[in-house]
């Protein structure tokens, strides 16, 4: 009989327990043997857990790890410590660990994968990226030898919900943030979501899988959504775009380069139609052109579903993604949208002249102007800047615009 343990029993850990019990007969038929959830490490021993029968429950790590020899451990703690110490211990013992901890995987994944390899264990983190969307194991299994040169996605359900409300209902950023917190989509401290750390962690993980190596975090830029204003959304609508928080990574001369930032996504792009808390990931390659994965990006049930399927994946499939020949993305022009108000006009004009910026179009608004720029040194600018994702030929303003 397989011995199963769960680290953490909050929303995700509790949902893993429920999913295992609900699907017990199906899972046991898949793995061809019975299993038992034998131990759970919890933070608060006083909570009512009367429904947990024949399960050893403890708040003490030493008791938990000494309870018995486990066959599989589900890690649902979150954060770096003590999750790193616990995960390291089990992988080193040759015990598979399934995690939903995006921060841990992004920051310590390279080290933990080495420990897993040395210990002969599986380290699974399907649930760490895009909730129920099966992108990680699609890359590890179905697309194990497929060359990929770019990955792009909407990776944070909270901000996507907020932006959807701002666009479709004309609501303010502060208003939708408060509602997202009331609905449980955003934490009381929403920093990880609105400053794009959450999506940044996920893009680092996706980059490792797509390109076969861990990125230098310094090469993945990160910009939050807190500077988005209503008039930015109005300009986007005017030129046929949707405002989204987009993560984009690609190979350039063998190095992984990426960015997570607000973007203007042209309406005919698939990501433009991803609304609410839904996540979407698109991968690009010479042989596949583009493949899209879309689904629920958050929630205990969605995350637990991915964790259980991750476990079943490692039982059925012993290989992993192999990248031998790196495939650089094709060189193409990059376009950004720079927002200029009256107070910053002089500074922006000086920036444009100093860096020989190619301003393709200037779109007027009562609050200022939006400049579409090509291959510009936007890192030197302190104004709100948006990636432009999609075909520039599809960007058309209904208002009078001008070329500067």
UniProtKB/TrEMBL annotation:
> What GO molecular functions are on record for this protein?
homoserine dehydrogenase activity; NADP binding
| Protein origin, superkingdom | Bacteria
Q: What is this enzyme's catalytic activity, as reactions?
A: L-homoserine + NADP(+) = L-aspartate 4-semialdehyde + NADPH + H(+)
Protein's GO biological process: methionine biosynthetic process; threonine biosynthetic process
List, for all copies, the residue spans of the domain called Aspartate/homoserine dehydrogenase NAD-binding: 8-121
Under Enzyme Commission nomenclature, its number is: 1.1.1.3
Official protein name in the record: Homoserine dehydrogenase
